[in-house]
Design a protein that fits this description.
Blueprint: H1 15-27, H2 31-35, H3 40-68, H4 70-74, H5 80-122
Helix pairs in contact: 1-5, 3-5
């Protein structure tokens, strides 16, 4: 099986393929846009990968820090504002990664709806011909 990130041909898509592009963009942002022949799919995919990478690296770093500082964070007599500030300083990069991924996902969804609209416009509106029908 050959896997390629080459851009698909930009041609009118039928509704089924357009819905497949939407589903692919929901699974992995950018993939459906690439299948539909849109260059923006590369950037959507890049944002998704960057977001997942940032979230994973800084999320794991935050979890390790949180486990090491569990006792200090659970003390009642400590300053809650200082604890919150410390939590925020450790967690903000993981949240930034989530936002980057979300931006890529929303961009991919917007592209998917554009693909759906484009396929609807290219679809012919001729009524289907039924066999056995008398004229």
């Amino acid at each position: 099986m050959k896997i390629s990130l080459a851009l698909g041909q930009r041609k009118p898509l039928d509704r089924t393929t357009a819905w497949g592009c939407l589903t692919a963009n929901l699974a992995v942002p950018g993939c459906g846009s690439l299948v539909a022949g849109r260059v923006s799919g590369y950037f959507q995919l890049l944002l998704a990968i960057a977001g997942v990478t940032l979230t994973t690296l800084f999320g794991l770093k935050f979890i390790v820090w949180y486990v090491h500082n569990w006792a200090q964070l659970q003390q009642i007599d400590t300053d809650p504002a200082a604890n919150f500030q410390e939590l925020w300083s450790r967690l903000r990069w993981a949240l930034l990664g989530m936002l980057v991924f979300l931006f890529g996902l929303l961009w991919a969804l917007a592209s998917s709806f554009g693909i759906l609209l484009e396929s609807k416009k290219s679809q012919s509106y001729a009524p289907p011909v039924l066999s056995g029908e008398k004229r």
